[in-house]
Amino acid sequence: MKIHMPGLMRETLPSGKTRWRVRPEGRRTVKITLHCGPDDADFHRQYLAARRGEKPEPLRQASDYAKPRSIAWLVNLYLEHLEKRVEAGAASTKTLKKKKNLLARLLATPDRVMLIPQEKLIAMQDKMAATPAQAHAFIEAVAVMYDWAIKRKLIGQNPARGIEKVYAKGGGATPWKLDDIKVFFAHHKPGSKAHIALSVLLWTGCRIEDLTILGRAHECTIEGVEALRWKPLKKGSTEVSIPLLPPLKAATRAAKVEGTTYVLGRGGKPFASGDSMSAMFKRWCVDAGLPQLSAHGVRKGLAELLVELGVSQYGLMAILGHSEAKTSEVYTRRADRWKLATDAMHRLNVPHTWF
Q: Domains of the chain (ranges plus CATH)?
């Protein structure tokens, strides 16, 4: 790629590497070396500084300030890698935020060596005994970070692998039932934000974070049928196209204030994040006398209802935006086994001559 900028020179070093230098404006005998090339986000800043005759300092990241090959150095190097993946659209901001919160525990004593002894990690896990799910997430985050470091030859072993789990995953969110929906709607009347939010969750099967984007802009007509079409925010999800059912259309049209999304936050603006939307929905559940329920439980209840109605696994994938069959199997496995068992027993329940 040819770059034409006043005073900019590209030089090939004996090693084969490329060096970029700049002549300051009006000073042709002076050459100032840049610390990066045109593909770097900081290139333009360094170029402008050099044209003014200033020697630019490279932008420094947290890992540059940490003690080399310390745990602080490794953690920041790994998080900087995740930030670049987020910028490239290969990872979500939610994942990055979660990793930062979990790995922050390793930064309490920045002078620690990069390879933390396994017994130290177990001691940290023990201190989190009151929150076993958080303890499990912490050890798993550390293990993934060390796996990343091993692949890049930064370290030779992973002290977080092999640590016994202290958390047994439960059944997850409580599925909503018909009576729960009636109670919620009885408390939150048509036109309210809460009523609209549950209506969208119920009649689309979307995740809570999708409430921050779903609106009339996603309405369309497919083969003469009013529909909704959108790409879920969760990484790896496939596009969802479903009919716009009358109850959902009626609920969204009953809004007192309309905006770019069906569910609006303060000032008539969309909610800033899925976390803030989730917290608000939980508050609406508590207000309705349903503190045991959550937004994810709506999606889970819908999935179980669809299975009971005979929707196939691939039909469930299309409605819920699953890209892999194993995700939908969580909902279909129990129902499928019952149907198979019932069918098998019916086959046995006929006259036979062999007994």
A: 8-51 (no CATH), 63-151 (no CATH), 178-341 (1.10.443.10)
